User: What shape does this take?
Amino acid sequence: MGRILLKGSFLLAASFVGAVACTTSSTSSTPSVAPSSAGAPPATIPAAKTVAEPATYGYYDGHIDAMLSTDVSSKSQAVAMHVNYSAALVTQSPAAYPSLYTIVGQAASDQPVVFGSEPGESDYSPLWQEVNVRWNAGATPVLLVKDDQIKELASKGELTIDPTQVVLNCPIVK
Assistant: This one.
């Protein structure tokens, strides 16, 4: 019984120290907004320096890159992807941006996306034109890891490339 009480006291003290440390660090370096005229409590800006977001991995020229999906010009995709719908992206010409190849169909069940560019390339942009790629009947699917590979297989009739009107805001973050 004494051990349980001691353990509980230790946890309570550790929680108190942690709460004080968190409160002190977040309020001492974080500005707050004055209360509104309606008497609402002041809003405190979080002290966090990072935000956890899911990453999507794909290939560019045979190596793996990671991207963050933030916005899309399609309302239905925004809902499905749990990202922002951006009406402003609807007004953008999809063809002005690099291609983000999404391989669709049963033959591509485990195929990651393929990027048409990456940071450091002259045509890189965090805005992408979504391009659907599908294996044609009779073709033998292989892992697609390069945009040039996709274009070559399409020229041989093994793939169908279907550019869409969807613009995505998905920066690559290595």
